[in-house]
Amino acid sequence: MNAPVAPADLAELSMTEAADAFATGAVKAEALVRACLARIEAQDAKVNAVIRLDREAALEAAAALDKARASGATPGPLAGAPMMHKDMYYRAGKVSTCGSKIRKDFTAPVTATVLQRLDAAGAIDMGTLNMAEFAQNPTGHNAHFGHCHNPWDLAYCTGGSSSGSGAGIAARFFTAALGSDTGGSIRLPATLCGVTGLKATQTRVSRHGVMPLSFSCDNVGPLVRTAKDAARFLKVTAGHDPKDPTSAGEPVPDYEAALTGDIRGLKIAVCETYFLEDADEPVVTAFEAALAALAERGASITRVKVPSMRAISAYTALVSRTESAAIHAEWMREHPGDYAIHLSARIYGGFAIPGHLYIEALSRRGPLLRQFVAEALTGFDLVATPTLRTRVPTLAETDIDADPANWARFMAVSANTRPFNYLGLPAISLPCGFDDRGLPVGLQLAGRPFAEATVLRAADAFQRVTDWHRKAPVL
C-alpha cells in the first residue's frame, strides 16, 4: 500500500491521481469526496458553478466504493474520482435544467449513455453544474441561474457554454466534468479558466440522453486538469452506442498508453490565415512560447496558409443556427418570453436562414474538410492555434443583454474553436501561459478524424515540460 495522501491535499489531485490513489489504497473515496465538498461549500458562493449538489448521494456512493475496495474488489479506472457535470446530461428521475427557465422542472426519463459509462468505471457523481442557457453562448452568462465567475478573477468570463465545468475544475471543486462542444463550449471554458478540455472527433462519443443544440455539430467531452486525465476519460466514454445511431463504430484505442512523452518527428502546422488575425500581443507571446516548448521536445513547426478558412467559418454559423432554430421552434412559439434576450435573438436569426443555404453548408462540409486537410494537414500531424485570440474578456464586456454593442466581442470569443466543429475534427485546449492581467491563455491542438491519440500525445508531452496546468487560482 502506498503512503496515505494528506487530506489537505486531496482536492488538488487530478482525476487520474485521485483514481490511482484510491486503487492503491492510498486514499479512501469518502475522503476525496469530502475534500471536494468542503471546497464547494466554502467557495461556490463566489464562483456560482453549481446548480445541484447531491451531497448525500455522493457520500453514499463513496462509502460503497470503500467497502468494495476493502473486500478485495477490483476498482474501475475512474473509481473514487469525484465529478460533476454540465446540467444537460440526463439522469433518470433527476431534474435537468439545461440552464433554462423552460426546463427548470424537467425530470429526465433516461440516463445519458456517457453517465452510465462513467458510473460503470467507478466515478462518483456529485451533481450538476451551471451553464449558458441551452448551451448557447461562448461566455458563460446565464440570466436564470446567475452568471458563472472566473476563479482567477471574479469579474471575468469563464467561457461557455460549459461555464460551471471550467470554473469548477479550476477551483478544484471536483476532478473532472462533462461539458459539451458545439462551437467551442468545452475548449473555451478550458482556456479561459486555465484547465484542459477535449473535443473528440464528431461521433466519437455517444450523445444519447444529452440535450441537443445542433444535430451535426454537438460533441460530448471532458474538462479536466491534464491530458492524461482526458485520455483516460475518453477511453471510458468513447465507442459506439446502439442508442445513438450517429455514434461511430471505430475501435477505441488505449489513449493513455499512447502518452509516451516522445513527440520527436511530429509535424505541426501553424495556420497563419485566420487563427492569428488581430490576436492580442500577450496571447501571441504565450502561443509562440508554447510552440517553442513543443519544438524543444522534437516536434517540427511549419507556418502554412489556409485559404479555405473563410468559407469554413461562414458555413459553421449557418449549420449551428439553423439546426438550433429547428430544435427550439416549438418552445419559441409557446414560451418566447422565457428565453434570455440574446438567445431569442440568435434563435430568431436561425429561422431567417433560407433552406438552400443550410443545404449548401451541409453539402460543402465534406469538400471543405478535404480541402482543409490538404492545406493544413497534408504532411503534418497536427494544427496548432491559440484557443482564444484575445485576452480573457470581463463579464461586463461581453454582456449583450445589457448592451447589444458588445455583440462583436461576444462572438469573437469562439472564432478559433467553431471551425473544428463544422469540420468534425478532434481538438484539445490546454493552458500555455497568462496574459498581462493574470488571466489564462490557451493552446489548441487539432488533428485528423479519430486521431485523438496523436492530439493527446502532443498535449501530454507539452504538459511534461510545463507547469501551467498545475497552477491554481486563489479565491
Automatic annotation (TrEMBL):
<dbReference type="InterPro" id="IPR036928">
    <property type="entry name" value="AS_sf"/>
</dbReference>
<protein>
    <submittedName>
        <fullName>Amidase</fullName>
    </submittedName>
</protein>
<dbReference type="Pfam" id="PF01425">
    <property type="entry name" value="Amidase"/>
</dbReference>
<feature type="domain" description="Amidase">
    <location>
        <begin position="32"/>
        <end position="456"/>
    </location>
</feature>
<dbReference type="InterPro" id="IPR023631">
    <property type="entry name" value="Amidase_dom"/>
</dbReference>
<dbReference type="InterPro" id="IPR020556">
    <property type="entry name" value="Amidase_CS"/>
</dbReference>
<dbReference type="InterPro" id="IPR000120">
    <property type="entry name" value="Amidase"/>
</dbReference>
<dbReference type="GO" id="GO:0003824">
    <property type="term" value="F:catalytic activity"/>
</dbReference>
